[in-house]
Design goal:
Helices cover about 40% and strands about 20% of the residues. The radius of gyration is 24 Å and the shape is globular.
Length: about 350
């Protein structure tokens, strides 16, 4: 049975959708404002969200990224007014599964509802169940965090490239470490490339390495970070900061698993697993010509989107207790507690 959330200020629309959804064996919840809809979606896992564009407290189109940022992300079906065809196109481009145009009727919406629910049912049958994980430093028991750890388990059990997206401070590197630490590559190196802090003039030599005499100051040969990750995991942190010239070169490395260090005459191979992370909208960067579409396609073979703490308040208590215990241990004092009123 699927859980369906309906966000629409028209109670008639909510009633019609709820009745149809429950008549075919699923559960429906209705709310009438954008704020209450976003709160509800952060507290409970939903398979499908029907989202009106024109809500009293905001534009539904602007809420699509937040809804898709929950884990696991729901399918979003936009409900538009009769005069909003452009909004429907924008919604689809931003990840909405489908759209319905008012006025709604049983004939108009029955097939789309069945299609999206069947799609979610098929999707769930192919999801692997959660397994026991080593998750050092990852704290929280919210639905979003549990779903995220399910994805970590799936990623750890495969060799596929993973793109981790989320705001600064959401724990992207912790998730990358967890994927590596639970994979068959755990005994080998986890090599971090901080793309945001590498000067553009040093990116190529840092990644690919160089031979002695390759440039002024190269008084000895040095392995690049790609070679250092041989047998292990290469983590490209803030991959959106890579210069376009390096993006092209790195795309070839992903395709061939070989590269030529600066000044070298022969290519060398490196067997690494790639995990990348970003706090930027790479799809938008592609549209602006700042990121290669073909590289993004290869990076996001599997995608994990991390929700900010403000969208998972249920994790606040766990985090406070975890870091309080660590601080007390560090300072050699008895573990402190908190009164119920504090939370």
């Amino acid at each position: 049975m699927a859980n369906v959330l309906i966000i629409d200020d028209d109670k008639g629309v909510c009633g019609l959708l709820s009745e149809m959804i429950e008549n075919i064996g699923h559960h429906a919840t209705s709310v009438h404002t954008l704020e209450s809809g976003l709160h509800e979606s952060s507290q409970k896992t939903y398979d499908v969200v029907f989202l009106d564009v024109g809500l009293p407290d905001g534009n539904g189109l602007e809420a699509i990224p937040r809804l898709l940022g929950t884990q696991p992300p729901p399918e979003v079906v936009i409900i538009t007014g009769s005069g909003e065809p452009d909004g429907a196109e924008i919604a689809i481009r931003n990840g909405a599964w489908d759209y319905l145009q008012k006025p709604l009727s049983v004939v108009k919406i029955l097939l789309p509802i069945k299609r999206v629910l069947q799609y979610r049912d098929d999707l769930s049958k192919h999801r692997k169940p959660a397994v026991a994980l080593k998750v050092h430093g990852i704290v929280g028991g919210s639905q979003q965090m549990k779903a995220c750890l399910d994805l970590v388990a799936q990623a750890a059990d495969s060799e596929t490239n993973v793109l981790i997206s989320g705001e600064t401070g959401t724990g992207k590197e912790l998730i990358a470490h967890a994927i590596h630490g639970n994979s068959s590559r755990a005994p080998s190196s986890f090599v971090v490339v901080d793309c945001a802090s590498l000067p553009e003039t040093l990116v190529e030599s840092s990644l690919f390495g160089y031979e002695k005499g390759a440039f002024t100051g190269a008084d000895r040969a040095r392995d690049g970070l790609i070679k250092q990750a041989d047998g292990g995991t290469l983590f490209l942190d803030e991959v959106g900061e890579l210069p376009l010239s390096i993006q092209k070169a790195f795309l070839r490395v992903l395709q061939e698993r070989s590269f030529r260090p600066l000044g070298a005459k022969q290519e060398i191979r490196s067997d690494f697993r790639l995990i990348a992370a970003t706090n930027r909208d790479l799809d938008q960067m592609v549209e602006c010509g700042l990121f290669r579409k073909d590289l993004l396609y290869r990076l996001k073979t599997m995608s994990i989107v991390l929700s900010p703490l403000r969208d998972r308040p249920g994790d606040v208590k766990d985090l406070v207790m975890y870091y309080t215990a660590r601080l007390c241990e560090f300072h050699g004092i008895a573990t402190k507690g908190f009164s119920p009123e504090f939370f």
